[in-house]
């Protein structure tokens, strides 16, 4: 079990930040042949990114809903996301090709989506939780004095 960081914590980061949301929706639960490979492809991609400190990938958090997962990924720059997505030597391209092949064979069985945000400023608070989210992707620091309020954390 992850160690709880007692008290109030926030993230600290001075660099560029891109937040990339990606998810899938299982539209045909009775067709695991269509959606299970899509679900299974994400883990190896995340592991590949985590092993490469030059990728620009900072970390992620995942939630699992009734119809599928949603990942919040933290990246240094949007160009890093695009470089990985188009890298013919990385795991994403073959997974994307396989998804498209399955989607033509079983139309509508699984949906995928993503949203990309270039973040100018970010604020965070974590109270009595393990270090997670943006604080885990960048660096965690305890909230003290002048950073007690959200507006002050956002202002820097």
Short description:
The chain is built from five helices and seven strands; from the N terminus they run E-E-H-E-E-H-H-E-E-H-E-H.
List the secondary-structure elements in sequence, H or E. EEHEEHHEEHEH
Tell me what the CATH architecture of the domain at 17-119 is.
2-Layer Sandwich
Question: What is the helix fraction of residues, given as a range?
Answer: 25-40%
> What is the radius of gyration?
18 Å
Instruction: Report strand %.
Output: 25-35%
For the sheet with most strands, the description reads: 4 strands, antiparallel
Task: Characterize the overall form.
Answer: elongated
Number of helices: 5
Biggest sheet strand order reads 3-4-2-5
Oligomer: single chain
CATH class group of the domain at 17-119: Alpha Beta
Strand segment tally: 7
At CATH level 3, the topology of the domain at 17-119 is Alpha-Beta Plaits
Global structural class: alpha+beta
Overall residue-averaged pLDDT value: 94
Poorly predicted parts: none
Distance between the termini: 32 Å
Descriptive account of the structure:
By secondary structure, the chain is of the alpha+beta class. It has a domain at 17-119: Alpha-Beta Plaits (2-Layer Sandwich). 35% of the residues lie in helices and 33% in strands. The protein has helices at 32-51, 78-86, 92-105, 133-137, 150-155, and strands spanning 5-11, 17-26, 57-65, 68-75, 110-119, 126-129, 140-142. A four-stranded antiparallel β-sheet has the order 3-4-2-5. A hairpin with a 2-residue loop joins strand 3 (57-65) and strand 4. 16% of the residues are buried.
């Amino acid at each position: 079990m992850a160690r709880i960081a007692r008290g109030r914590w926030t993230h600290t980061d001075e660099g560029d930040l891109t937040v990339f949301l990606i998810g899938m929706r299982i539209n045909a639960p009775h067709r695991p042949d269509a959606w299970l490979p899509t679900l299974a492809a994400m883990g190896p991609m995340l592991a590949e990114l985590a092993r490469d400190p030059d990728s620009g990938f900072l970390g992620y958090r995942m939630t699992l809903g009734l119809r599928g997962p949603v990942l919040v990924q933290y990246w240094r720059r949007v160009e890093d996301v695009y470089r990985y997505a188009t890298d013919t030597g990385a795991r994403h391209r073959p997974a994307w090709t396989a998804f498209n092949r399955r989607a033509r064979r079983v139309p509508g069985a699984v949906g995928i989506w993503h949203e990309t945000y270039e973040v100018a400023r970010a604020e965070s608070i974590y109270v009595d939780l393990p270090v997670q989210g943006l604080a885990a992707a960048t660096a965690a620091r305890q909230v003290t004095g002048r950073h007690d309020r959200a507006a002050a954390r956002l202002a820097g």
